[in-house]
Design goal:
By secondary structure, the protein is α+β, with helices and mostly antiparallel strands. It has 9 helices and 12 strands. It folds into 3 domains: 127 residues, PAS domain (Beta-Lactamase, 2-Layer Sandwich), CATH 3.30.450.20; 75 residues; 156 residues, Histidine kinase-like ATPase, C-terminal domain (Heat Shock Protein 90, 2-Layer Sandwich), CATH 3.30.565. Helix 5 packs antiparallel against helix 6, helix 7 runs parallel beside helix 8 and helix 8 runs antiparallel to helix 9. The relative contact order is 0.07. Bound molecules: adenosine-5'-diphosphate.
Length: 382
């Protein structure tokens, strides 16, 4: 081979090498060749012989288009023809190299004409093995799909679990009322029709509440929907007290609410906010279940600081360890044997979606203090 050709190959090899060095993990191997203008290979480097599993002697003299699988040959012949007549620099084409029987390599071919004054022009080509890159791209694609599926499944799981969590309370109330009805009817005496009708309306109300909770949660989880309305924070807390009292009484727990005189107005999705408060109260009741009854008390205090309403929920339970204060808001974090660990994560998301915050700290009794803040609704034109 002429020395000019050898030096050309050497410098081209040096050009190709940095790619392998800067991206060693990608294992892109490349090979070089020189061919005459008729398209017959005249010189190759060692990487190309290794890549194609052929000797130099087998490659030299071979028409370039015979390097690729049969289907690609007409396209490659056209490409060579185009490069030969082009005044531009190198051009690129994807090719499928034929290696052994049944083995092929996906590669990119860069081809250009080298014109050295006083010498016949030659074709210089670089073949870059793209198989590794393609395999990686396919693997990445599958990994992305897999991750997306897991995320969707987790969102679905979270939605299903929070629906189950939130409708548990109305369903328990419905079951208790149906039981009371059954007892009255089975007692043998003429049933008190007025009382039965009161129970029937209560059942209806609780069933509608469950349906509403499901609808709202679904809307929130899938579309982030909130149906906001202007309401005084005191009204929400009084409604919550009405809902929570039967459960609190049954567990021997007192609930004290202290509202500051102003009772500011917030613009919130009332059903969602009631669920958040109920969840905090239920957790507090559970946290104090092993205390003597006299000590089981929840204090709810609402006041305004600047343009925020701050509502605190204090209990006398064991409190939350400093190390766990971030974690308890993570989905599925629970220390209860039958807990789902979704109440606080869902509650925090709901409060944040209203522009507020939900956090936990310790109170003077060593119990937990959950602090919820919400923006005060601004007067129109204020
Ligand atoms: P779950 O009640 O199903 O466990 P939550 O998300 O509502 O799910 O609560 C997560 C965890 O936070 C609880 O398991 C408990 O360890 C802790 N926690 C919540 N509220 C209190 C509280 N008032 N006092 C002490 N720990 C609490």
């Amino acid at each position: 081979m002429d020395s000019k050709a050898l030096s050309l190959i050497a410098s081209a090899e040096a050009w190709a090498k940095p790619q392998t060095e800067t991206q060693p993990h990608e294992a892109i191997s490349s090979g070089m060749f020189m061919a005459n203008m008729a398209g017959e290979i005249e010189a190759v480097n060692e990487s190309l012989t290794a890549m194609l599993n052929l000797q130099q002697s087998e490659l030299c003299g071979l028409p370039l288009h015979q390097l690729v699988v049969q289907e690609d040959q007409p396209r490659l012949l056209q490409f060579i023809e185009k490069v030969r007549h082009s005044a531009d620099g190198g051009q690129e084409i994807p090719v499928c190299l034929h290696v052994d029987e049944g083995v092929a390599i996906e590669a990119s071919l860069y081809l250009s004409v080298l014109r050295v004054p006083g010498r016949p022009p030659v074709l210089i080509g670089v073949l870059i093995n793209q198989t590794q890159r393609l395999i990686r791209e396919i693997a990445d694609h599958f990994q992305r799909e897999h991750r997306a599926r897991i995320t969707r499944l987790m969102a679905l799981g979270e939605m299903a679990s929070s629906i189950a969590h939130e409708i548990n309370q109305p369903l328990t109330a419905i079951a208790a009322m149906a039981q009371a009805c059954g007892q009255m009817l089975r007692a043998g005496k003429t049933p008190d029709l007025h009382q039965l009708s009161v129970i029937a309306s209560e059942v209806e109300e609780q069933a509608l509440r469950a349906a509403q909770v499901v609808k709202r949660i679904r809307g929130f989880v899938t579309h982030g929907n909130l149906r906001r309305e202007a309401v005084a924070i005191g009204d929400i807390l009084n409604t919550v007290l009405g809902i929570a009292m039967p459960e609190a009484r049954a567990k021997g727990t007192r609930i004290n609410i202290l509202l500051s005189s102003e009772s500011p107005t917030v613009e919130v999705d009332v059903i969602h906010l009631e669920q958040v408060c109920m969840n905090l109260i239920r957790n507090a009741i559970e946290a104090m279940s092993s205390l003597p009854e006299a000590q089981r008390a929840i204090s709810i205090y609402s006041h305004q600081i600047g343009n925020l309403v701050v509502v605190t929920f204090d209990d006398a339970g064991p409190g939350v360890r400093a190390d766990d204060r971030e974690q308890i808001f993570e989905p599925f974090f629970t220390t209860k044997p039958d807990g789902m660990g979704l109440g606080l994560s869902t509650s925090q998301k709901i409060v944040q979606a209203h522009g507020g915050t939900l956090s936990v700290e310790s109170n003077a009794l060593g119990g937990a203090r959950f602090v919820m803040t919400l923006p005060v609704m601004m007067e129109k034109g204020a």
